[in-house]
Write a structure and sequence with these properties.
This protein has 190 residues and is α+β, with helices and mostly antiparallel strands. Helix content is 33%, strand content 32%.
């Protein structure tokens, strides 16, 4: 049986199929904004700089207006930039400074995922005390209105991290104290 078409046409058809597959390089797929791992690291460094500036509004501007943030030290997901900014105002009062200990970056079509372990030095519960909190993180970046923005940020404390909850979360800590647990059960704790 004889095939029709030239070898060049077959090669082009194969290339078109390969470019449309999910595993194809992002820059090769039509409509994809190219990005690479060094750029993702730079986005994170800019996030870190905004965090270290202490300016909650500047840090919140790194997030898309409809971003979702699941912070490590709160019990509820935050939806939208203004909710994220309100959370960041409290968080930044702890004067966080940090560094990435390990990370994996994955690149997709107009999307990048940065995951790893981050260590924060922050103010402790006692005046003048600092503490170290190690966090697992994932940040998903997407192009929004021509800019790379954080659209999803998840952070959770490492299971072996038993350092204390920062002062801005003191009310949360008090909620789960033994006295409050007894009151919620309706007994006096005896």
């Amino acid at each position: 049986m004889r095939r029709s078409g030239s070898p060049i046409a077959s090669a082009l058809a194969g290339l078109a199929l390969a470019v449309s597959l999910p595993g194809a390089p992002a820059a090769a797929r039509e409509g994809c904004d190219g990005i690479n791992a060094p750029s993702v690291r730079l986005f994170f460094e800019r996030w870190e700089q905004a965090m270290e500036s202490g300016d909650a509004a500047a840090l919140a501007r790194r997030y898309a207006t409809d971003a979702i943030f699941i912070p490590a030290l709160t019990d509820a997901p935050l939806s939208g930039r203004s909710a994220i900014e309100q959370h960041l105002k409290g968080f930044l009062k702890t004067h966080p400074r940090g560094r990435v200990e390990s990370r994996t970056i994955q690149i997709g079509c107009a999307e990048a995922l940065d995951t790893g372990i981050y260590a924060f030095g922050m103010d402790g519960p006692k005046p003048g005390a600092r503490m170290l909190v190690r966090i697992r993180f994932s940040m998903t970046y997407q192009v929004r209105d021509g800019r790379w923005m954080i659209v999803h940020h998840h952070a959770s404390r490492l299971p072996e991290d038993d350092s204390e909850i920062p002062p801005y979360q003191a009310s949360l800590q008090a909620t789960f104290s033994l006295g409050n647990a007894c009151t919620l059960r309706g007994d006096d704790g005896d």
